[in-house]
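The material for today's practical consists of a large collection of protein records. Read left to right, the backbone structure tokens trace the chain's path through space. An example says more than a description, so a record of this kind follows:
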Amino acid sequence: MLNICLFNPEIPQNTGNIARTAAVTGARLHLVRPLGFDISEKSVRHAGLDYWSEVDITVYDSIAAFMEQHSGDKLWFFSKKGRKSYTDVQFSDEDTYLIFGRESVGLDEELLRAYPDRVLRIPMRHSMRCLNLSNSVAIAVYEYYRQLNFPSFETSWEANREEI
């Protein structure tokens, strides 16, 4: 099962886009406080996130709480400081966690140093600061599912084609 984890996300629109990606792929979404926005039912309804109820969401009070619960799981941290590309690893169908940091600063250096072989990057031009968080998550999620041959996905365009 794929798990998308956001450590201290700051921008609600990014998290909304990531929640939609989780909904359409069946991935679980893990949010780690502090969050830069409100995810109460009223706030989500007001934002028009009609797919929010389709997402399996778990919220943690801190990074430490998340790490304590999942330290033995298959964790992959995404950072521009990663030594290997996200395409250099072989994902498996066991519980896998793709972890992303805050939009403004990414993941904490201490965490990256603690798991140097688990830090992945998405290649981009050196002159650019970073990709948008929701784009980065989508790239990683679809690479994970591509490697597993899109299990339980409808991959045939014929099945999704509307009559013309």
Notes: Residues 2-160 form a domain with the Alpha/beta knot fold (CATH 3.40.1280.10). The first strand starts at residue 2 and ends at 7. The chain is about 30% helix and 20% strand.
